[in-house]
Write a structure and sequence with these properties.
Elements: E1 3-6, E2 10-14, E3 22-29, E4 35-41, H1 52-63, H2 68-72, H3 75-88, H4 96-99, E5 111-120, E6 128-136, E7 144-149, E8 153-158
Domain DUF6985: 9-163
Protein name: DUF6985 domain-containing protein
InterPro entries: DUF6985 (IPR054254)
Length: 169
């Protein structure tokens, strides 16, 4: 099995199904209260993109400095995503706890982080993005995705759609 080495998260093993996916061991993520998560480098062929690991490491180093307070600073955006979805669908009693949220920081009780993907955008800028894929109570089918450009700035919060598109969150 092939491996690559990140100075920030250690050894990543090549996925057996997707040759351009490389997976880490479980890493503590301070942004999510030190929840242990796998980080996957996606769409990465080492021979074709020699700068990827260095750029990914820079983005990960920046992102891994983010803490609970950084997460809480975007609670309003996650809450707004939830409310926009709930307002677009027929009322369901099961959603009442979401409607009852008084403090927007409580939204995180309904969001379940699953995976972190590191990928390069396919536009002319070719920036590195971290995609935080989460499940959530209001959008069971498509979940929730947080998109961080270069690990620094949240540039998108939406359903998981697989697209790297900046929406300037």
């Amino acid at each position: 099995m092939k491996t690559i080495k990140s100075k920030i998260i250690g050894e990543l093993k090549q996925n057996e199904e997707f040759e351009d996916w490389w997976e880490s061991e479980l890493i503590e993520i301070p942004f999510f209260d030190n929840k242990k998560m796998k980080i996957t480098f996606m769409d990465f062929i080492p021979e074709s993109d020699p700068e990827f690991i260095q750029e990914a490491d820079k983005a990960l180093k920046t992102f891994l400095k983010k803490s609970e307070s950084d997460r809480l600073s975007i609670s309003n955006l996650a809450y707004d995503n939830c409310m926009a979805f709930l307002n677009a669908v027929e009322f369901d009693e099961a959603d009442q706890p979401l409607w009852d949220i008084k403090d927007k920081n409580q939204i995180w009780k309904f969001i379940y982080p699953q995976d972190i993907y590191v990928t390069r955008s396919h536009d002319k800028f070719e920036n590195i993005y971290l995609v935080l894929a989460c499940e959530c109570e209001w959008e069971q089918e498509h979940g929730l995705e947080l998109l961080f450009k270069k690990g620094e700035k949240l540039t998108g919060i939406s359903e998981q759609d697989g697209y790297i598109a900046e929406t300037d969150a």
